[in-house]
Specification:
The complex is a heterotetramer, with 2 copies of chain A (147 residues) and 2 copies of chain B (113 residues). In chain A, 31% of the residues lie in helices and 25% in strands. Chain A has helices spanning 18-32, 36-57, 109-116; strands at residues 7-12, 65-73, 78-85, 119-124, 130-137. Classes of the chains: A alpha+beta (147), B alpha/beta (113). Bound molecules: adenosine-5'-diphosphate (2 copies).
């Protein structure tokens, strides 16, 4: 984590940038060794995390800044992503998925993120705004049978 | 700016079939929501959403469909989804909302459902 | 051009980052209004420009930095991309596509870039390295017939 | 790191068919080049490159194919490409190298060519 990110991205808090970022993360996850199903889940988690920053952090304002940093780690292979913003900062304990029994629109984003990633944690940035760190490990491949 | 999501509308007897084309995320779910609401305002006995041309859907898309389902329950009309792509299906499965919906494998099956 | 880029990206000069960047540019071009064929050409031009920086600017070193900035402009709609590096800086006049009659591997990248983009120009950065600016206009749609 | 490009190899009579799978850019053309060179070292009378699973190819991929073509001309053997996707075809067309190659629509046509 101390080394520089493999990829750093800065976007504005406008929904039209969700797709460019998630296809990039999808490609990066595939590079890391995730299968297509996992790449789909990882880009969904990414999209939900960014959408939350746009909706809750920046209240729908389109000119907020969002920084994304991604690292591909080796042995063990994993993908780490950090998302930072300068929007409204909230107590991380208030960020939780809704009760799935409660069928209503909304409240699914955090559930998708927690379901997909092996680690995810929100914190308030010292300089204002939020910081979300997510990590997902590539499942170990089945050992090759001896020939 | 280009419209990267469009919705096609067709009528089969008294059933309305909507076919959204494109990825449905927070940038596009409001326009899908508006289209569905305007169709539901006419209270057709059955609405089919053919998702064959939707490779991706996030929670805002799912929320839109949940809202449509709630409206159809209030209207005592039917709502059937069909042709879910693998990624859309897996988002639905994780949301555990998949049991709430009536889902058909094909458009024909949806029309008969 | 004076306003901040819609998307800024920083990558390392390693070929495994070519695909993540070009799929992002592909998505951004599609957002801009380019058709699928043009999106393919634009992401190809992007890939060739980055590959040249990795090969010629950084001589295959994997730890050089490359900065990409992208703007989507409206009325007239266009996509503008700037690529900057801190690699070997060369006289822009030496950067040219090869003679297509000369059938040999290599020398196609600059030809692809010039063929695809409406504007492209290289310059030496004051601080070292090169700067490539590329612009492509979205073809005006056929006027809608009156109803 | 995952292998995001692999090459399948098959033999049909005296013809070798190589089927690369994945996008061929500067990260992957060296491995394609190596595979083709090792096949060409055996001097088969004909080599078919089935590009049906190659959605994308940049100039380094095209350079690899030009090199393969030069080797096959030196060896007086045949090289046939088939199943070019639209994006790969357009890269070839812009390079104006498309006339240099023998290109078939399908694998069957390539085997007969
Ligand atoms: N980046 C964020 N900044 C502030 N609050 C957030 C952020 N992300 C999530 N939250 C909070 O967590 C709740 C759950 O988020 P989510 O599951 O995505 O549902 P929804 O956004 O549909 O309400 C939100 O309602 C919000 O209160
Ligand atoms: N970013 C760059 N830095 C330095 N030289 C460059 C750069 N891009 C292109 N060139 C020069 O332009 C020439 C043509 O580039 P290109 O058409 O991509 O062919 P190739 O890289 O296969 O030689 C290169 O051989 C190189 O001399």
């Amino acid at each position: 984590m101390s080394r520089d990110p493999d990829i750093s991205i800065r976007i504005f808090s406008a929904p039209e940038f969700l797709r460019p970022v998630r296809v990039m993360v999808d490609a990066l996850a595939s590079q890391c060794g995730f299968d297509d199903h996992s790449c789909g889940l990882i880009s969904l988690a990414m999209d939900e995390a960014l959408a939350n920053v746009m909706r809750h952090g920046y209240k729908g304002q389109r000119d907020g800044r969002i920084w994304i940093s991604a690292w591909t780690h080796e042995s063990p292979d994993s993908l780490e992503v950090v998302i930072e913003d300068l929007g409204v900062s909230v107590d991380p304990r208030t960020i939780r998925g809704r009760d799935l029994e409660d069928v209503r629109p909304g409240g699914l984003g955090v559930h998708f993120i927690r379901h997909t990633m092996d680690e995810c944690s929100w914190e308030q940035r010292p300089g204002g705004g939020m910081r979300l760190r997510m990590l997902k490990m590539v499942p170990a491949a089945a050992p090759e049978p001896p020939r | 700016m280009a419209k990267t999501m469009t919705v096609e509308q067709a009528t089969e007897g008294s059933t309305v079939v909507l076919t959204p084309k494109g990825e449905i995320d927070m940038a596009h779910s409001p326009s899908l929501q508006k289209t569905i609401a305007s169709v539901q305002a006419e209270k057709p006995p059955k609405l089919v959403l053919d998702l064959s041309a939707v490779p991706y859907m996030d929670s805002s898309g799912i929320a839109t469909l949940v809202e449509a389902l709630q409206t159809s329950m209030r209207n005592k009309s039917k709502l059937v989804l069909c042709n879910l792509s693998p990624r859309v299906r897996s988002a639905f499965e994780i949301s555990r909302l998949i049991q709430m919906f009536s889902i058909a494998e094909s458009r024909d099956a949806a029309l008969k459902a």
